[in-house]
Amino acid sequence: MTAFEATIPPAVEPAPGWSQSLADGAPGIALLHWENARTGTGSEGLARQWFAAMTSGPVTARPDVAGLYRGVPAVGFALHAADHPGYGAALRNFDEHIAVLAQTRLANAHDRIDRAELPVLREFDLISGLTGIGAGLLRRHGHSTLLGQVLGYLVRLTEPVRHDGDLLPGWWCPTGPRGQTTNAWRGGHANLGIAHGISGPLALLATALRRGITVPGQVEAIERITAWLDEWCQSSDGRVWWPGVISRAEWRTAIVRQFSPQRPSWCYGTPGLVRAQQLAALAFADTRRQQTAEDALTGCLRDEHQLALLKDASVCHGWAGLIHATRRVAADAPPGGSLAQLLPGLEARLIDHLHQYGPPAGNGLLEGGTGIQLVQLATNAAPITRWDACLLLEA
């Protein structure tokens, strides 16, 4: 048994009661078993048991709760990834609920913009917001009217807004990244990450554009986001990096108080930020921006100070996420680049970490053993189920 195979304890069984969370519940684990079945390393019967477990009770479609990582979008994402004819009727039912959910969320978001109020993260982010719902729609249907409406909302999100005398980006939030209203976050913040920040909308807008899916203002929205990321790009000691968040005080002084790179995680760090910018560069055939992004990730992977900041093996903020993001960036980089050459060493370090510290305590996709195993299964080929569409990493 390898370190990866040991990450999900044998006691985990597809019994009723598992949550509807793609992050740490049955949908993510079902994806793993279906990927196993598709690659010939697991049982389709076991995968179907997990799908039954995640639909054994009512699945929430509440607008204040449901998003890509919870409720009908999460379960629908997993069902679609299975690509099994037996799930067709259930998927069509989920499509109807997702459409109502998306329309409700869109109406609320547009009303908020019309009132010239600032958004909360869960309005637009990948994990809970409309970017995540859009990612699910893109994976499920490709081009659709509803996806176009989500993209149109994201275009509006990027339009500047005046607040308390400052002209702020439209994704500026009125509180801190965890909803704090303390003095440190007086005036709110802007989030750069792919999980909760503006790199998520950037990745979705760019991926849609690459697939020929366009709405008015989409190109300009991508340009606004990339220009803003350029503005906050930091360079120190030969390292190129971005902060995870910007406070109002930093905005007003144009000085980042963070003096060195954050941990190189998928969720907030260089790997996710680079992938979003690479996707934008590919959509625009901008070789200069593409090279700049890829060089930033190469520098990150060669910087032991940054790698030492990784304290766990997970997809969200650990070694597995770093590795899988690097794979996706390397696959779209010019042949013979250094990123692909660095991957075997990173994969070995993940296994070393698991041997030294053991597997994560949880079993989920984002922070537990499920995600690590999914990354391991993709060592030699892209995921068959395309599960990483939920991370906005696939092209």
TrEMBL record:
<dbReference type="InterPro" id="IPR033889">
    <property type="entry name" value="LanC"/>
</dbReference>
<dbReference type="InterPro" id="IPR007822">
    <property type="entry name" value="LANC-like"/>
</dbReference>
<dbReference type="Pfam" id="PF05147">
    <property type="entry name" value="LANC_like"/>
</dbReference>
<protein>
    <recommendedName>
        <fullName>Lanthionine synthetase</fullName>
    </recommendedName>
</protein>
